[in-house]
Amino acid sequence: MLFSIVVPVYNAQKYLENTVESVRQQSFRDWELILVDDGSTDDSLRVCRSLEALDTRIHVLTQPNGGPSAARNTGTAAAQGEYVLFLDSDDEYLPGALAAVAEMTEATGADVVVSAMQILRRDSREIVSKMDFDLGGSRFTREELCRAMREKRLAPGPCRYAVKLQMLRENSVRFPEKISIAEDCLWLCTMLEYVKTAAFNSAPFYQYNVHSGSITTTMSYVRMKDLMTVCERLFVMGKAGSGELQALRFNYCCILTNSMLQHFAGQSAEHRRSIRAWVRQHDREFSEALHQQPLIRLASFFLGNFRAMRLFAQAVRWKGKLSGR
Questions:
Q1: What is the pTM of this model?
Q2: How far apart are the C-alpha atoms of 188 and 263, rounded to whole Å?
Q3: In the CATH scheme, what is the code of domain 3-210?
Q4: Any residues with CB less than 8 A from the CB of 26 and at least 6 apart, and which?
Q5: Taking the C-alpha atoms of 116, 226, 180 and 322 in order, what is their torsion angle to the nearest 10 degrees?
Q6: How far is CA 280 from its chain centroid?
Q7: Per-residue pLDDT tens for 117-158?
Q8: Where are the domains of the chain?
Q9: Are strands 31-38 and 3-9 parallel, antiparallel or unpaired?
Q10: Which helix (H) or strand (E) holds 308?
């Protein structure tokens, strides 16, 4: 079997059938679909069982609620394919997606295949963004992959990657549990450490569906604390690494901190002091990370790292408001 597709399921009864059907309609047939019900309180488990009855390639696992990382780990542990892929329970594969990735794995034998994706507003059926790329080749080293990810600003979400299962198991690569945000960033930056060869699939692959009211306008301090934890782990990993992977890890630290600072003004005075102190505590790491951000680096020379990054975060947020995102 070539592909094991893991789907974490939590209260997803509304969209799950459409998601599974996008897999069943693929022209490429050599796959298994692992639905991991993560303690759903709606009818998701019943929907999972009915889908399992339709197709012998669909398998259902259940566990107490532990979050998407725990569900992905459970599914990965049960997987039997050569490559593992991750699909969210309200998204879908585009037609021909698995065939394109299968062709790439056969042609290159790469440890990981990175694919294009698009973002769709489900209510209006409007394609908000197409995250595709043409790098002028198919097989790359890890250094080339990390450089491309940094320069093309590829999101760290796991759903665009097909990864050799043996590589993950031999190196005990798992999703970090009990972190509510950006846990996939840690998984990706750990996984990349063991990649020797990579391939890019520029064919349409994955559709990320945005629902009405699902765009986050505020961020709780609890989630900010989780972002700080992720950044601290990335700082440690970055110091231990070198080359493009190190640069990518530091780059993600800047991106995550930027996301956090976009919501800085909405926090209590006590929490704002705590965030400001945290940034200053890691001033040396941010100074190293900002070498990749020339404009912010220039501003930080005059304003300091915290003020420069906050100014940039506010600019990004206002740009989003003006563009209607």
A1: 0.87
A2: 25
A3: 3.90.550.10
A4: 93, 95, 96, 97, 98, 99
A5: -50
A6: 27
A7: 888 887 767 777 776 666 656 788 999 989 888 877 677 789
A8: 3-210, 221-322
A9: parallel
A10: helix 305-322
